Amino acid sequence: METPAARGSGPPEPDATGEPGGPRFRAGGGRGQGPERVRPNGRRATGADRPVLPGLPAEESLLDSSPTTMGSPEGRFHFAIDRGGTFTDVFAQCPGGHVRVLKLLSEDPANYVDAPTEGIRRILEQEGGMLLPRDRPLDTSRIASIRMGTTVATNALLERRGERVALLVTRGFRDLLHVGTQAREDLFDLAVPMPEMLYEEVLEVDERVVLYRGEPGAGMPVKGTDARVSGRRAAGPDGPLTGQRRASLQAAQGTCWRCSSLWTWGACEGSWRSSCLEASAAWPWCSCTHTRECGLAGGAGGRWASGWAGSSAALGRHRRWAQHEQQVGALAHELGFTHVSLSSEAMPMVRIVPRGHTACADAYLTPTIQRYVQGFRRGFQGQLKDVQVLFMRSDGGLAPMDSFSGSRAVLSGPAGGVVGYAATTYRVEGGHPVIGFDMGGTSTDVSRYAGEFEHVFEASTAGVTLQAPQLDINTVAAGGGSRLFFRSGLFVVGPESAGAHPGPACYRKGGPVTVTDANLVLGRLLPASFPRIFGPGEDQPLSPEASRKALEAVATEVNSFLTNGPCPASPLSLEEVAMGFVRVANEAMCRPIRALTQARGHDPSAHVLACFGGAGGQHACAIARALGMDTVHIHRHSGLLSALGLALADVVHEAQEPCSLPYAPETFVQLDQRLSRLEEQCVDALRAQGFPRAQISTESFLHLRYQGTDCALMVSAHQHPATAHSPRAGDFGAGFVERYMREFGFIIPERPVVVDDVRVRGTGRSGLRLEYVPKAQSGPPRVDKTTRCYFEGGYQETPVYLLGELGAGHKLQGPCLLIDSNSTILVEPACQAEVTETGDIRISVGAEAPGTVGAQLDPIHLSIFSHRFMSIAEQMGRILQRTAISTNIKERLDFSCALFGPDGGLVSNAPHIPVHLGAMQETVQFQIQHLGADLHPGDVLLSNHPCAGGSHLPDLTVITPVFWPGQTRPVFYVASRGHHADIGGITPGSMPPHSTTLQQEGAVFLSFRLVQAGVFQEEAVTEALRAPGKIPGCSGTRNLHDNLSDLRAQVAANQKGIQLVGELIGQYGLDVVQAYMGHIQANAELAVRDMLRAFGTSRQARGLPLEVSAEDHMDDGSPIRLRVQINVSEGCLAPVRVVIPKGSILDPSPEAAVVGGNVLTSQRVVDVILGAFGACAASQGCMNNVTLGNTHMGYYETVAGGAGAGPGWHGRSGVHSHMTNTRITDPEILESRYPVILRRFELRLGSGGRGRFRGGDGVIRELLFREEALLSVLTERRAFQPYGLMGGEPGTRGLNLLIRKDGRTVNLGGKTSVLVSPGDVFCLHTPGGGGLWGPRGPRPLCRRRSCSP
C-alpha cells in the first residue's frame, strides 16, 4: 500500500530541531512578503498539514513532492514547469513559502490530457486538501504565474510533425532551401540522407531587390516605358520617389539599395535579355506592386490556401527592404492562412538561406505551439487571463505566451537547464567557469557559462539551420539509450539510440543493448530504485538478466576477435566488456566539451562540471577526471534543474534591425540614435508586462565585421565604457578588437569595420533568488544498503546512501552510490562527495590510479585513442577556420586537417574534404623521403607540387614535424591543407581551364621551409608567391595578404595539434601513443579487408568471379579503367595493391598541367570504383568549378549536382558528392561582395536518370555580371552522361551557356575562359545522377506552384 508521502502529499520528516530542510525564495522589486503562520511545535504551517481528503486518487509520483521551506512574495502559487519529451518536471513555490516538486510522464492519455496542467492540479489538490476533478477547468485565483519550458517545438521538428506550410520565395529560387549550403552531413554515406523540407508547396513571386552599385542610367526611366511597373508608378514605401526622397532614404538605410521588379525579367522569356540590366538600373526604389496579379490572390488562390495552416516568405535582401515581404504577408492573411512568417521579421540578419529556414521553421512550428498553448489555457478558468504565463526561449530568456514563436522555441527545454546551473553552480563555486553536462536518454547536451550566457546566432537542429539567438549548446549522440556495437575491432557507442520504445534491453521490450544496460551490468544502477513501469504491461522492474543476455552477444563478438584476430589476446569478462563500452561512451561525451573549451582557448581543467539530467550522475566523475577537472557540482534538484532554471530566469525582450553603416566617427550619432530607439522599444515592451523601470536593464550590441570578410561578431560594450572616440553607448570597437583577437588570434587593423546589425536585449529581472535553510546533521550518514559495483580492477563493496537523509557537511568517500527517486550518482574510487550548505553535492575528483596501458593492441584503448586522435584533428580544423581570413577557408570550409604517424601514415583526419585526405599522406611521406635527416625542430614545411603528393596548386599543404626530447627523428607529424583563392598563374583564381603546363597554374612549392628555426619566412614565401609573374602571360598572386594570413592560420592549427598530442604523450607515454597510431592504421586496413571479404564471399556464393571491372571516360575521351582482383584465401585477404600505369592521367609527368585532376578526374575515379562494386549509379562526376576575377576582385565556387541512386535510395538532388563537400556562398553574401546578381538557383528538374530508384537532379545557376571580368569554367560530364546502373537510365549531361547582353547565346563547352561584360549572363546547368534498376516514371517531387501573371 502506498504511503501518502510516496504520493507526494505529506510533509518531510523533520530533523532533530523539527525544521524540515529546503530552499527559500526571497522576492525583490518592492513586493512585500506575506505573514508566516507558525504551528505550536515551531514548524511553519503549510497546506500539506491539512489532512488528505478521502477519495483523493492514489497516483504514483516518480519523485517525492514533499514540501520544503521557501519564502513567498505573496499568498499565491508560482509554477515553473519543464515539459520534456519523456517526463514533465514541476517546481512550485506555494503560499507560505515552501516548495513542492513533482515529476510525471509527459504523455499519459489514459490518465490526463496535458502533463503541465495535471502537475498544477495535483499540487493544488495537495496544498488545498480538496479534490479537483480533471474534467473541470482549474481555478486561477490562487495562481500568480506559470513559467514553462517545452520540447513541443523540438519534437515537432525532429519528428516532422509540424503544420502544413507553403513557402513563398523570389522567382528563380524555389529550391534554395533544399540545396542550402550544398554540403552533405555524412561524407561517406552514399545515400546522402537529409531531413525532409518543412514546406510542402513553393510559390514563386516576381520581385527582386539588389544592391545599387551606381550603374550608368540610375534614376532614368527604362527605355520604352513610362516608369510604371505592372500598371503602377514606381514608388518608394510612401509613394513616388523624387531625387531628394531617394537620397534621404539612402542615407537613412546606410546602404544604397535598388529594388527592382523582375516582371520584365521573369515574365517575358523572349525580351528580358535585352532589357534586364536597364530595368534594374532605372528605379533604385521601385516597389513591386503587382503581387495580386501574380496568382497570390483570387478565388483559385483562396481555394488553394485552405488546408494549409502556415506560410513563410523568404525574399532576397528583405532583411533591409521588407516591403515586398509585408505585401506578400498581407495577401496571405487575406487568403486565409492562419499564420504567416516573414523572414525579415523572424530574424532580420544577412544570409537568405538560414533566414529562409528560420521563417519556414517559424511557420511550421508556431501553429503547433499556439495550438498547444490554447489547449493549455482551456484547462483553466478564464483561460489564464489574469495569470502571468511565460515561456522559455532558446536564448535563455522568458517571453509572454502570446509572443512565443516556433523559431525561438527549439531549445526551450535545454535552455532552462543552462539558466539553472548558471544561477546556482556558478555562484556557489566562487565564479569559476562551469561546463554544463546534461546527459539524457538519447543524447548529451554540453554548454559553458563564465559569467555571461554564450549565444550563437546560427545553428542547425534536425537538419534545419536556424538564424536566431540561441544558447551555445552542443549535442552529442551519446546518452543512456545509445546502442553498443563491436565493429572491425572497435568498441562503438551510438549514434543509433534505442529510443523510449523499445528502449534498452533492461526495459523488457526486446530492445538492444545500450549504455544503460552496461551500467546495470556493472552494478551502477539498482533496479529497486526504479519504479515498476517496464515490460509490455508497464508493471515490472528493470531486468538485469536482459541486460546481461544482450551484452553477452556483443561480448562473444569481442572475444572472437581477440582470440582469432591479428594480435591474439585473452578474452574479456562480461564486466570488462561493459566497462570498455562505458569508457568509450565517456570519451565520446568528452569531445564536445573539448570543442567548447580547448578549441576556443579555454583550459577544461579550470572548469567545474555541473551535472544534471537523469543519466549524468553515473558518468560525471569519469568525465571530469578525463578532462582534468577536480570538481563536480550536482544540484540538489539536478533532476529538475531545467524547471528550477525557469523559476530563476529573467524575462527578455529583444529588438534588432539591419544596418550597413561603417563603424566610424561620422556614423556614431546614427548608431546611438538607432540603439536608443531599440532600447526604448525593449523598455516599453517590458513595462507593458508589469516590470517597473528599476527592474529593467538593457544591453546594446553591434554586429561587427571587418570589411571584405564574412565573419561577423555580435559585440557588447558592457565592459568597454564610452570614450571620446566611440558611440555614447560604449566603445564597441575596443570590444570587437579584443574579442576578435581572443576568438581568432589576430586582427586586421588596416581594414575598416562594418556594422551589419544593431541589437538591444532588454531584461526584466524577476527579483527571485534562491536561498537554502540547511538540514543539520544528525550524526554520521546512514548507509541504506551495500552493493557491489565494478570498477577498473574488479568489484568493490559500495555503500548506498539516500540523498534525502543527508545533511549539510556530510562527507562520503568513494566508491558509493547516492540515490533519490530521480537519479543515481556514482562517486568513483579516489573521489569524495560532500553535502554543501546549500544542500547540493560537491564531488572532489581524485587522480585515477596509475594505469597499465601497454603498447600491445587492446580494443578498448583502441576505441578510446580513436576518439582522442579524431578530437585532435577536429580541433585543428576549428582553429584553422577561426584564424583564417579567406572566404574559401573560413566560410566555404575548403580545408582539411590530419594527424600522421612517425612513418607519415595517416592516423586520423576530421571529416573535412575527401580529396585532400588521401593525398595528404603522400605529401608527408614525400617530405620524409626527400629531406631525410634534414628536418629540425622549429621547421614547418609548405608543399603543393603534384609529384610531392599535392592535388592541385591552390591547395597548399602545411606540414609540421614534431620532435620529442631524447628522439632524433620526428615522432609524429601534423598537417593542414587549404584551398587558397589565388596563387598566381594565367587566370584569376588559379584554376585555368586551358593551362598546358604546371607553371601556368600558379606558384609551385616542392619542399619549402615556411618556418625555419621558429621564424615565419614571410619575405621568402612572398617572393615565391609572386614568382609566377615572371612567366609571360602569368601573374603572381593577386591576394598576397590573404595568402599570408591563411598560411599563418595553418601553422597555428598545426601547433594546436602538436599541443594536444603532446598532452596525450604526457598521459600515456610516447611508446604507447606511437603504438596506437600504428594500431589505428592497421584497424583501418582491417575494416577494408572485412568489406572486401564480405564482397568476395557474396560473389562466390552467387557463383560470380572474384574479379570486377568498370570503365568510364573523361569528356575528351580519355578512358579511366579499373580492374579489381580479390584473393580470398583461408579467410584472409592479401593486402590491397594499387597499380597505376606511368604516363596516364593518374600519374602525369612533373610539368603537366593538373588543375583539373583534383576537381574533375578524382570524381570520375570514384564513380568508376563504385560502378565496379555495384555500390551505386554515377553521381554528377564533376565539381563544376566557376572562377570570376578582374584586377580588384576574385571569386571561386564549386557547384552541386545530382547524386547517383543506389539499392534502396533515390539519389539526392542539388548536393556535392564524393570527393568534395565545400559550401556554396549565400546569395546575399555573394551579391554584396562581388559584382554579380544571382538570377536563378534551383534544381534542374528531370535531369536525374530514371529507374526504380531515380538519380538526383542537378541545379541551374545563373549569374548576371555587373562589371567586366574574366570568367573561367572547369567542368566535366558535358559529353559523357553519368551512367545508370543495372538498367537504370543515365543522368543528363551538364551545360554551360553564356547569354550576351545583345541576346546571343554561346555554348561555352566544358572548359574555357572568356571575358564577360555588364549585362552578360552565365547559365550553369549541372549534371544529374544516374538511376538504378530499370526505368520507371519520374519520382514524385515537392509540389510547386508558380506565381505567373
Automatic annotation (TrEMBL):
Residues 1-75, 222-244 are annotated as: Disordered. GO terms for biological process: glutathione metabolic process. This is 5-oxoprolinase, ATP-hydrolysing. Residues 858-1127 form the Hydantoinase B/oxoprolinase domain. Pfam families: Hydant_A_C, Hydant_A_N, Hydantoinase_A, Hydantoinase_B. GO terms for molecular function: 5-oxoprolinase (ATP-hydrolyzing) activity. Belongs to the oxoprolinase family. Residues 79-212 form the Hydantoinase/oxoprolinase N-terminal domain. Residues 670-830 form the Acetophenone carboxylase-like C-terminal domain. One of its GO terms (cellular component) is cytosol. Residues 355-654 form the Hydantoinase A/oxoprolinase domain.
